[in-house]
């Protein structure tokens, strides 16, 4: 329910209605979409190949824009109003591609991203097909999802319903390493989330143990830096009342206390990704690298630890940060420490409304002959752009194809899962566009 543009989520479920269903749970329009999608499966793969062959690491601004041009071409053909959104130069990101169309009824936000983790000089480059498996940078995360959005809309256009559905498509250009501040780099996405009734994220689907899994929640991803100083002195005096234990031992105490006292709450994890310590430390958090100098006969005076933290809710994040700060503040003699927390991806909390979307997707999956979908443990997924809009609209993620090895040179995609993902998305949008909402 929305009042004055603000969404209030309740435990009252959506009444989701599929009209004129056949015996297998699919109506005649859905059957027509399935036939069209199957007939154009290779066309979708060709578009995927075209975009995978364009290197588009987050810092490769020209490559990100080039992928955006390809997707813009496809959306222009569908009759959407497309716009390339430039970000301020200081943010140092390529920008975003947004597309819009008017309509009546439920408003949909469809989310993808144009960038990958593989920069222009990476050896992993180009699309390679081996039978029903495709390989290439970003093929799973998430150039396949971008294509699935386009072909789901094409299928809806084929049966004559696309024109009636209000849609915003957001292809961000910096999902893998978002520009800061987020209040600027994610402003257009958040605005779209406030406009939408339903947000759908098209990062990869998950299947294991013979079961398809639906994503109704994702954890946050934020950062922290711990800085510790100690008294530099000859190592013969370490642990003495005059010299103390030094920065490295104090850092070890703090990290061990994090492990013993903060760890353990469900869905809460934190990681120390880099640690440097010695007499002198020079660390660049933007590049995640630095230099260290120290000697074994000198008590170290400085350490820097750079880490991340993931939570299922803002309350959980606040509790964890408070507990970490208390540990850091309990300094050992002749040491001092501080911890700084950084903005990042917020959590996508598992609401009752999101679960209703999952139930509808599960029914579609059964109608397609794959069985019911289970609810994925949010600890099994990373953060994503859909989390920025989840506070404002009902949301469902993981509507992409089935892939493996994301963020590695072994990234691959089951190409047979592309038409499956297009079918699920097209039928889901079709059914939700016809749904009614109870008060």
How would you characterize this protein structure?
The protein is α+β, with helices and mostly antiparallel strands. It has two domains: 13-218 and 348-433, 3-Layer(aba) Sandwich (Aminopeptidase); 221-345, Alpha-Beta Plaits. Helices cover 32% and strands 24% of the residues. It is built from ten helices and 21 strands. The chain has helices spanning 28-39, 41-52, 61-77, 139-158, 182-185, 187-195, 246-262, 314-329, 352-367, 417-433; strands spanning 2-3, 6-7, 81-85, 96-101, 108-113, 128-130, 133-135, 167-172, 198-201, 206-208, 211-214, 221-230, 269-278, 280-284, 289-293, 302-310, 335-345, 373-375, 394-396, 403-404, 412-414. The strands form six sheets. It has a six-stranded mixed sheet, with helices on both faces. The chain has a four-stranded antiparallel sheet with strand order 6-7-21-20, with helices on one face. The radius of gyration is 24 Å and the shape is elongated. The termini are close together. Mean pLDDT is 93; it is low at 1-21.
């Amino acid at each position: 329910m929305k009042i004055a543009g603000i969404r209030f989520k309740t435990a009252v479920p959506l009444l989701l209605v599929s009209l004129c269903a056949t015996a297998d749970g699919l109506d005649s329009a859905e059957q027509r979409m399935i036939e069209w999608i199957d007939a154009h499966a290779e066309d979708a793969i060709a578009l995927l190949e075209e975009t995978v062959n364009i290197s588009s690491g987050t810092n490769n601004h020209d490559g990100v824009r080039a992928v955006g041009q390809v997707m813009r071409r496809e959306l222009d053909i569908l009759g959407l109003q497309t716009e390339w959104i430039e970000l301020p130069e200081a943010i140092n990101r390529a920008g975003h591609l947004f597309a819009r169309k008017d309509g009546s009824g439920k408003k949909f936000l469809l989310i993808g991203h144009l960038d990958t983790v593989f920069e222009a000089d990476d050896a992993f480059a180009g699309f390679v097909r081996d039978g029903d498996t495709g390989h290439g940078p970003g093929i799973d995360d998430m150039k396949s999802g971008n294509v699935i959005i386009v072909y789901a809309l094409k299928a809806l256009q084929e049966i004559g319903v696309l024109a009636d559905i209000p849609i915003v498509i957001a292809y961000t250009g910096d999902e893998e390493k978002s520009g800061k501040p987020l209040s600027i780099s994610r402003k257009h996405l958040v605005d779209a989330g406030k406009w939408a009734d339903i947000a759908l994220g098209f990062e990869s689907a998950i299947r294991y143990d013979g079961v398809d899994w639906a994503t109704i929640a994702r954890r946050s991803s934020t950062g922290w830096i711990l800085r510790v100083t100690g008294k530099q002195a000859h190592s013969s005096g370490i642990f003495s009342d005059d010299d103390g234990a030094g920065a490295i031992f104090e850092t070890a105490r703090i990290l061990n206390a994090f492990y013993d006292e903060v760890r353990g709450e469900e869905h809460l994890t934190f990681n120390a990704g880099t640690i440097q310590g010695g007499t002198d430390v020079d660390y660049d958090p933007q590049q995640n690298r630095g230099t260290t100098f120290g000697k074994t006969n000198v008590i170290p005076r400085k350490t820097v630890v750079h880490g991340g933290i993931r939570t299922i809710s803002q309350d959980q994040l606040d509790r964890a940060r408070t507990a970490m700060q208390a540990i850091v503040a309990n300094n050992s003699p002749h040491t001092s420490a501080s911890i700084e927390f950084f903005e990042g991806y917020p959590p996508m909390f598992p609401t009752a409304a999101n679960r209703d979307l999952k139930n509808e997707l599960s029914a579609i999956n059964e109608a397609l002959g794959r069985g019911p979908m289970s609810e994925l443990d949010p600890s099994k997924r990373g953060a994503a752009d859909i989390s920025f809009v989840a506070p404002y609209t009902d949301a469902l993620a993981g509507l992409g194809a089935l892939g493996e090895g994301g963020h590695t040179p072994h990234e691959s995609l089951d190409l047979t899962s592309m038409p499956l993902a297009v079918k699920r998305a097209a039928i889901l949008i079709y059914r939700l566009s016809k749904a009614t909402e109870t008060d």
